[in-house]
Amino acid sequence: MKDQAARKKAGELTQEQVADYLRANPDFFVDQDELLRSLTLPHDSGRAISLVERQVHLYREQRDTLRHELVELVSIARHNDGLFQKSKRLLMQVIEAGSLNEMAAAVDDSIRGDFGLDAASVILFTDRPLPASPEGALHVVSPAEARQRLGSLLEGERAVCGQFRESERRFLFPDRDEPVASVALVPLRHNELIGVFAVGSNEPGYFDQSMGALFLTYISDTLSRLLPPMLHRHSALEPVPDVLAESR
Predict the structure, then answer these.
(1) What is the pLDDT of residues 150-159, one digit of tens each?
(2) DSSP letters spanning the chain
(3) How far separated are the first and last CA of the chain, in Å rounded?
(4) What phi, psi does 166 have (nearest 5°)?
(5) What is the pLDDT of residues 172-208, one digit of tens each?
């Protein structure tokens, strides 16, 4: 009778209650070697395995997962270190540039050479003429034209990534024979909007809204601080009109 009552009572326990009890008493099986050996669990292979074998299998799966995650983290760290070194070399060249065209050439060479992208563009928004004509990756447009052509793309402070409209891509990269398919654009701001820094790829899906653009922001933040004094220096070098000669 007692055995029947015990089986009946055990039959009233739910799986959740048993699981809760084992969680609350993790050392329950310490003195239950025979019970451990008698417990079996289904396996993917179709055969039954012991609880100990199942635990070993789970530990191995966990180990493999952690090892895979570690390999991914190391790969990401190496990738980020590579981007940092490339960005550092570019910024040193930009700092040492003696003119706006030299600065733009350094950006273009680094983006297409070191970073392996297809196009780079630095567009300044100003109505004031520059002493030297823009060359290579450097372009100058009026603020009004820039807002008309790029619109809401200039409203944010972070990088905007995507395929963009064809008219926008051609405006950002006007000298390209092969059209750019995917773009990452960062507004250049120093108290106010002074221009944009854009990089492009011929691969349509290369840039998208989900990708990080930390290195682009890093570069654009530096350009935003270097360009205003460089523009001011260029303006100071503009030739002064000879008023006396004009009055003769």
Answers:
(1) 888 888 777 8
(2) -HHHHHHHHHHT--HHHHHHHHHH-TTTTTT-HHHHHH-EEE-TTSSEEEHHHHHHHHHHHHHHHHHHHHHHHHHHHHHHHHHHHHHHHHHHHHHH-SSHHHHHHHHHHHHHHTS--SEEEEEEE-SSPPSS---TTEEEE-HHHHHHHHGGGGS-SS-EEE---HHHHHHHSTT-SSPP-EEEEEEEEESEEEEEEEEEESSTTSS-TTS--HHHHHHHHHHHHHHHHHHHHHHHTSPPP-HHHHH-
(3) 131
(4) -60, -40
(5) 888 777 778 888 888 888 788 888 998 988 888 888 7
